[in-house]
Protein 1
Amino acid sequence: MSSPAEPTAPADEATTVATQAASTATTEAAALANPLRDPRDKRLPRVAGPCVLVLFGVTGDLAKRKLLPAIYDLGNRGLLPPGFSLVGFARRDWKNQDFARVAHDAIKEHARTPFREEVWRQLREGIHFVPGEFSDDGAFDALAMALKEIDQTRGTGGNYAFYLSIPPKFFPQVVQQLKRTGLANAPKGAWRRVVIEKPFGHDLKSAQELNEITSQVFPESSVFRIDHYLGKETVQNILALRFANNLFEPIWNRGYVDHVQITMAEDIGIGGRAGYYDGIGAARDVIQNHLLQLLALVAMEDPTSFDADALRREKEKVLKAVRLPQDLALGTARGRYTAGWQGGERVRGYLEEDGIPADSTTETYAAIKLEIANRRWAGVPFYLRTGKRLGRRVTEVAVVFQRAPHLPFSKDDTEILGQNALVVRVQPDEGITVRFGSKMPGTAMEVRDVSMDFAYGESFLESSPEAYERLLLDVLIGDPPLFPHQREVELSWRILDPIEEFWATQGPPEDYPAGSWGPASADAMMARDGRVWRRL
Ligand code: BG6
């Protein structure tokens, strides 16, 4: 990760960065001239070189809510080159201006940074649209022609990133078309990259098949698998917290940690995503990727550097060491939301959502207890839970510490003292909390829990970029550490497959009312270990 916040890069890294900077001298000048950039900011800007981003699936929700706004935000921060071009491809009878209008509206509604007419105008100049079906050779020939023309008129140098924001069943067709048209092959001095959105398969076998298809056309180094959690500032900060400090690492092990809870709770239901979600469920949707990636970052050993190989190798080692509970009936729980109240509103149950079959057995809540068989973590449970329509939206990693071995206080004085905890608040209230015991003011020696907080909003002036800003920029720069390798994807499926197979034999999941904190079996799972889920 060639992080911008490296004031004293070692000589060889500095050289690489300098070369990169030289090749983007003009764009960098543009970036530095950007009014949103603080002139006191000494960090070397990471600016993309000349390129085209081809977006398949421009009419989808992700494109509108996240990708198009993120592209604008990058432009607004001066991180895109002047000739940057965006090509949309979809089955719509659109002209360039129709796509531009859609992009404009999406940006106005969802961009993080303020709308500035001059930034939009510059982006607009590079917007193109190619209509067509994925099966239509003619449409892909037209795409190839359009890209050639863009290279000539906008100086994009044959550098193309193909973003597949489409259902995986279309991947083979699109990838084959890119091969047939020669678009997958970079001429000398240029690059071609493909970006794949999750789900990367629905089990180990399908993930391998999917990889087989892409790897026949693109080398692994050109494949960028997006797990947007890795683009979140607070998630990257787990690495800074652990490896830039000396305070936490000595106690980050089985000698001090009692257990770890990783929670991703959502208050929303499945919305209009029945077609995607049913048959997939909570575990495949987010545990296989986001939550296991969080576990890997929390549990891994320190990498020798933050380059892709070193980082991925450490994550892989941890994922390989993950062990499932012996009895999956006792060490896992799953649920499905029923109608209930949320935010003062009556909401439907999962089975009443549009497009969900009455005999669905898909879970909208999943909890799993895992252990990590290595010297650092043996015997420390990692509890993962996620669910839709829960009490509120919150994602956090809580490292809960063992109680002090001896308490020289009267029992009454420590009655309400809990366990120390370090909580990485991933979202929405981004920051870190340390919970510890403190004497209550007064004449007695009563001790109770207090919290020490670090909040992003209070410590930093700059707001955090959206995950997709960071990841899109990394794709355009060609910086892969924040993208999981196929090996990580497969290791994660190896963890999940036996659980899914077990659940498939168990009939429908247990009900929980919308707005609650999940099924009773998830609480029972913790209670058997003498623990409770954190109340959020
Ligand atoms: C996606 C899942 O990966 O993450 C969605 O497919 C989920 O089901 C979403 O709602 C949550 O993302 P975030 O960034 O809002 O936590």
Protein 2
Amino acid sequence: MKQDLQLYNTISRKKELFKPLNAPHVGMYVCGPTVYSDVHLGNCRTFISFDLIFRYLKYSGYKVRYVRNITDAGHLEGDRDEGDDKFAKRAKLEQLEPMEIVQKYTLGFHDVMRVFNTLPPSIEPTATGHIIEQIEMIKTIIDNGYAYEVDGTIYFDVEKYSQKYNYTILTNRNLEDMLANTRELGGQDDKHGRLDFALWIKAKPETLMQWASPWGMGFPGWHIECSAMSAKYLGQEFDIHGGGMDLAATHHTNEIAQSEACNHHQPAKYWMHTNMLTVNGTRMSKSAGNGFLPGELFTGNHPLLRKGYSPMTVKFFMLQAHYRSTLDFSNDALDASEKGFRRLMNAVSLLPKLTASDNSEVEIDPLRMNCENAMNDDFNSPVVIAELFEAVRIVNTVYDGALKISATELDKLKTLMQDFIFDVFGLKDEDASNTELNEVLDMVIALRKDAKENKDYATSDMIRVGLQNIGIQLKDSKDGTTWSKS
Ligand code: AMP
Ligand code: ZN
């Protein structure tokens, strides 16, 4: 177990030593997607970041229960408990049942997560599957005096809560300023305070998804699902709660308030927030119209794209930025990532071909230590990538015969690359998975070898140049011929 892992806690606004409540067990809850439409690349960045954190905690020896929910009900268009239900609106638009919408976009989300080679969470609960738990929690909040009913709708009483607790603990905002910046209540508003938010919303007769409750037919507010489900699967107090930075101001602020009003203490010890993927400095989002879909990126079928990029190129591009920095999308940056990722994979493919010497001019332990230190410093993946390129340099120099490596150090180099590239980063060799291409190339290389042995240089050159023309480079050495994509 790495005892020196530091992570940035949004509540304290500094890096803290990670001390799980019940080591080696770790409970981590991440707010999942709202499945009324396709996930865009910005959403993917957040889930890929938490996949990295999940993987590294496991690498460090922790037993992680990773809960990532699916929001499949109760998400109104406005943050102020008004506007249409997103699922109902989409269902009408696509002429489907709301649950068909949920199924369609949940499957699509899983496909995208698989393409990015992320690990599935340990539990993936849905809001609609936990209506009873949400109602129970709301009942306790009402009993504790922090919520009130107005005609079948239940509101959380932020003013009352603020008398005892710090409502803005996550963002450090000034409550007076927040009030001043929030629209005044009008005649049609039922809630008592401007910052109050709905825990349960009364259904209209035409509401498509509604459930029975002690307050009549209705549906849950958006925030209560995460409070109820995290408590159910991780306990009333657990280790890490995460999501995108845009969730901190409202969704997570309200989650803390609900859990505290219900259980009298905060739900999570560490709050972690990933920064946004931007396009020309603007946050990628569906509403801004700059939120392109993973499929558009892979095919290049989008006006902002010069060409398509493979899933692992995109993932590598994301890992090259720290999860708390913004990451701006650009074709140039993706081109650079494509080259970098190929260099990395090329080195991986050379690993089995390296021969060990009796002595070693290189030591691998310091490299592993640098990688671990970087990850222990709030999951600093860009620093790990710089260290991995040092490993690439070693592989290439040994392969060229300009550096000696012993069998022990070579083994360490192989495990280091396996651990960080594949296990911790969750990258995969897209060419290696293309077994048919590998087999065909092995055959073509064997034919070229035969031609050379028969001094048929015209044929051997024709093969080499032909492959070069389709972007495949052959490299001859005393151990045989290898190929790489140029
Ligand atoms: P949603 O489906 O809109 O609830 O979002 C799912 C997750 O994606 C949440 O954790 C959001 O904070 C996150 N997210 C949304 N937009 C971006 C973005 N541009 N960059 C990174 N994460 C984002
Ligand atoms: Zn949530």
